[in-house]
């Protein structure tokens, strides 16, 4: 659906085949990325006015199955990596990760959370998947799945809104740290596809 390198001056350009999603950044600066590129990531300042907003006119509305992945380097803060009908948060205090899926029909929130899975002072490749047909949701950290849980089959996701990256308009905690290579897919990626997505980031950073 969408691929944002979050690196250099073209980091907000959607590099996916449709390439239609527009992105607006505020109070972001370039920082070293996960593969050695000196401008290979966006640094978010941990305040509500430092964020990236992806304008969702339908391209990011997965609605059924979906996956989202990114490289993340956390500093001394807790906060959202991205937020809409599928949201992801990281917690420096517990080295934890949390994913929330929202049911489009009744706004029920399904939460997946696990502590002590992130690695301090380095880059983490993190993401999540949901399979509409099986109802299985997963959370991936670095080299494997850390959560696999059924949250219900045939659930339509509330992914029709704009996507806020690095901050939340209605919460006190905002992400302070670096994000690179943010990817959205309208399918639940397999393990092999996730490994390919991780390598895609490597190629895009050179």
Regions with little confidence, pLDDT below 50 for 5+ residues: none
Shape: globular
Assembly annotation: single chain
Tell me the structural class. Answer: mainly beta
Determine the fraction of residues in helical runs and give it as a percent range: under 10%
Q: What is the terminal-to-terminal distance?
A: 22 Å
Strands, total number: 15
| CA gyration radius, whole angstroms | 15 Å
- Compressed to H and E, one letter per element, the order equals EEEEEEEEEEEEEEEH
Describe what this molecule looks like in 3D.
The strands form 2 sheets. Strands 1, 3, 4, 6, 11, 12, 13 and 15 form an 8-stranded antiparallel sheet that branches. It is globular, with a radius of gyration of 15 Å. It has one helix at 191-204, and strands at 2-4, 22-26, 29-31, 41-45, 51-55, 66-74, 78-83, 86-91, 96-102, 109-114, 124-130, 136-141, 144-150, 163-165, 176-185. The chain contains 1 helix and 15 strands. By secondary structure, the chain is mainly beta.
Give a brief rundown of this model.
Helices cover 7% and strands 43% of the residues. The chain has one helix at residues 191-204; strands at 2-4, 22-26, 29-31, 41-45, 51-55, 66-74, 78-83, 86-91, 96-102, 109-114, 124-130, 136-141, 144-150, 163-165, 176-185.
């Amino acid at each position: 659906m969408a691929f944002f390198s979050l690196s250099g001056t073209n980091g907000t350009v959607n590099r996916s085949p449709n390439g239609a999603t527009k992105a607006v950044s505020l109070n972001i600066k370039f920082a070293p990325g996960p593969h050695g590129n000196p401008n290979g990531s966006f640094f978010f300042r941990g305040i509500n006015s430092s964020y990236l907003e992806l304008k969702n006119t339908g391209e990011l509305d997965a609605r059924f199955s979906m996956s989202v992945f990114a490289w993340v380097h956390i500093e001394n803060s807790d906060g959202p990596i991205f937020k809409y009908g599928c949201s992801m948060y990281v917690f420096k205090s517990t080295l934890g990760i949390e994913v929330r899926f929202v049911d489009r029909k009744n706004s029920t929130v399904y939460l997946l959370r696990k502590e002590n899975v992130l690695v301090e002072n380095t880059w983490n490749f993190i993401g999540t998947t949901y399979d509409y047909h099986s109802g299985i949701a997963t959370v991936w950290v670095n080299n494997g799945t850390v959560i696999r849980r059924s949250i219900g089959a045939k659930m339509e996701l509330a992914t029709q809104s704009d996507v806020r990256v690095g901050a939340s308009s209605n919460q006190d905690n905002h992400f302070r740290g670096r994000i690179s290579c943010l990817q959205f897919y309208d399918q639940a990626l397999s393990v092999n596809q996730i490994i390919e997505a991780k390598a895609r980031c490597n190629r895009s950073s050179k």
